[in-house]
Specification:
about 85% helix
């Protein structure tokens, strides 16, 4: 046996070993990409969950915006009511003790209107 034949035999043996290794890797890759049990399935499930979470975040963002707008309207209404109440208090204070107050005049109007009906 010459050196050249031994090198060819070693090359054939190495090629067979690499062919077996490639087959094993191909089988593993097929199992990994399987949509039901492998990593491909896990990726598909995760992608669906990400889409669902993005929709939930969008819905929460819209609801938070609406709630914020509603709250700002309520705050503005409360400020107006507070200013009106303070104005009535000042009017009552300025009217003096012998003058009827805004609140007592309103009560009187309700009583008079209630008797007419």
């Amino acid at each position: 046996m010459t050196v050249e034949m031994m090198l060819q035999a070693a090359l054939v043996a190495a090629s067979l070993g690499l062919a077996c290794f490639c087959l094993v890797l191909a089988r593993r890759l097929r199992r990994l990409n399987d949509l039901e049990t492998g990593l491909g399935g896990a990726i598909a499930v995760m992608a669906a969950e990400v889409d669902r979470l993005e929709q939930a975040i969008q819905t929460a963002r819209v609801e938070a915006t609406e709630a914020g707008e509603s709250l700002s309207q309520e705050i503005a209404r409360a400020r107006k009511e507070r200013a009106l109440w303070e104005l009535r208090q000042r009017i009552d204070e300025a009217a003096g003790p012998d003058q009827p107050t805004v609140q007592s005049m309103r009560r009187l109007r309700k009583r008079v209107g209630g008797q007419d009906a």
